[in-house]
Amino acid sequence: MSKITPSLWFDNNLEEAMDFYVSVFPDAKIHSVTRYGEAGPGKPGSVMTGDFEIAGQRFNAINGGPDFKFSEAISFIVDCEDQAEVDYYWDKLTANGGKEVQCGWLTDKFGLSWQIVPRALYGTVTGKDAEGAKRATEAMFKMKKLVVAELENAYRG
């Protein structure tokens, strides 16, 4: 386990969330689940906490109730090899209530924010050709899901 582990607060759907993330990310796994006992405060037998892993990153989470919500102030970046990988994660994470935002950002059905980023983005918006980088950045601002071909075309002019 790394020295720092993100801890996520879910209302009352942690088990559903863990199952969802394990279905989306091929290398994800649930390490442990603890359940509420008779002392509560949750319903006895319902999930209290969970420890899971996505792409080698451990997460701890709690079913803490409705007091706190996720915001875009925290997001997780998914580094994508190519457009096919962007499309896969975009489609999976926006399905069933997820929301497309802008510039590669989305919010999944649990309210957690993700950035789905193709590696090609960095060669375009921060490329050596300043005018090309400007065009690619302007193209990116018009996108929700990032499209590699459009970024590269804008960069080339």
TrEMBL record:
PhnB-like domain mapped to chain residues: 3-117
Top-rank taxon: Bacteria
InterPro entries: 3_dmu_93_MTrfase (IPR009725), Glyas_Bleomycin-R_OHBP_Dase (IPR029068), PhnB-like (IPR028973)
Signal sequence range: none
Descriptive protein name: VOC family protein
